[in-house]
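Lecture notes, continued. The same structure-token format from the folding unit now serves as the input rather than the output. Read the line below as a description of shape only.
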């Protein structure tokens, strides 16, 4: 699993950054088996281990998530359930995080919860969101995570 990447959303123009920043641990689901239909693909044994490692890492983070929001697809829900168990966070299924999610949808999803949050989604969405926030893609292998600071103002 990749190391977490710290990314801060850049302020545009003369606009001042708000002191209100939301910590989002942007996670890609762990390794899933091949198959059809795509929505029902489950984690492999390696994927379960990746999800546990991700959950342990987030459980020891100084900004441990209070909530885990997940895409409705099976592999994402399985990853999120393990992360929530490891961190003690509340788990919620969030349709906005289904494949095709954008930065705007991520922001809408996390606006509904308080405190640091972990989201579990898909590729290439995670890379595209990180790129939109930071101007670079840190890469998202299965079970990968990037720490984002999103301006909530």
């Amino acid at each position: 699993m990749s190391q977490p990447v710290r990314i801060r959303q850049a302020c545009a123009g003369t606009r001042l950054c708000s002191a209100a920043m939301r910590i989002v641990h942007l996670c890609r689901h762990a390794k899933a088996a091949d198959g059809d239909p795509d929505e029902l693909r489950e984690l492999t044994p390696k994927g379960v281990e990746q999800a546990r490692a991700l959950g342990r890492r987030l459980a020891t983070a100084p900004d441990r998530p209070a909530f885990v929001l997940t895409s409705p697809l099976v592999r994402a829900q399985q990853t999120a359930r393990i992360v929530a168990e490891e961190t003690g966070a509340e788990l919620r299924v969030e349709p906005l995080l289904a494949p095709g999610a954008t930065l705007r949808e991520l922001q809408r999803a996390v606006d509904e919860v308080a405190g640091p949050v972990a989201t579990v989604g898909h590729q290439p969405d995670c890379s595209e969101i990180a790129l939109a926030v930071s101007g670079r893609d840190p890469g998202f292998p299965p079970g990968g995570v990037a720490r984002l600071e999103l301006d909530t103002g």
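Point for the exam: Residues 19-151 form a domain with the Rossmann fold fold (CATH 3.40.50.1240).
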